[in-house]
């Protein structure tokens, strides 16, 4: 994943934030919307595109565009920085390979403990039976 080439493919758009905020919210576009076309990206290889599209399937549109938005701050520039960091974290997480799972061996002490408890339970049941003369 080449970060510089991916950052060049990002599209930012500033829009007005929703919700309460007085007169300022009606005239200042501080909310930032980021869109990244995953399917048309030249920065990612085909394997990375398929892996990211599978892992980000719930966040992608039908056209394969990832859309993120941020209106946490009153500053458009800070929202853009937050959004860029969030996007890089999302992409890094989507492209991270999972470690193969190593099956663990059951410890000898656990096996011994289980067999011992079964033996004790069997002796308890045996002692409750009627004596066989």
From TrEMBL:
UniProt entry keywords in alphabetical sequence: Hydrolase
Family stated for the protein in its record: Belongs to the prokaryotic/mitochondrial release factor family.
Protein name: Alternative ribosome rescue aminoacyl-tRNA hydrolase ArfB
EC number annotated for this UniProt entry: 3.1.1.29
Composition skew (Basic and acidic residues), residue ranges: 118-133
PROSITE patterns reported for this sequence: RF_PROK_I
Ranges of compositional bias, category Basic residues: 102-117
Metal-binding in keyword set: no
InterPro entries named in the record: Pep_chain_release_fac_I, Pep_chain_release_fac_I_sf
Region Disordered: start-end pairs: 98-133
Domain Prokaryotic-type class I peptide chain release factors: 16-32
Stretch forming the signal peptide: none
Molecular function via GO: peptidyl-tRNA hydrolase activity
């Amino acid at each position: 994943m080449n970060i510089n080439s991916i950052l060049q493919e990002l599209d930012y758009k500033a829009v007005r934030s929703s919700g309460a905020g007085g007169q300022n919210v009606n005239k200042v576009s501080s909310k930032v919307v980021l869109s990244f076309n995953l399917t048309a990206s030249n920065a990612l290889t085909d394997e990375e595109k398929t892996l990211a599209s599978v892992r980000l399937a719930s966040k992608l549109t039908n056209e394969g565009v990832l859309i993120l938005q941020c209106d946490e701050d009153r500053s458009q520039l800070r929202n853009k920085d937050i959004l860029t960091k969030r996007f890089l974290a999302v992409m890094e997480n989507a492209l991270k390979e999972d470690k193969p799972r190593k099956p663990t061996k059951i410890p000898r002490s656990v096996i011994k403990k289980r067999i011992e408890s079964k033996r004790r339970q069997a002796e308890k049941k045996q002692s409750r039976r009627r004596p066989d003369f």
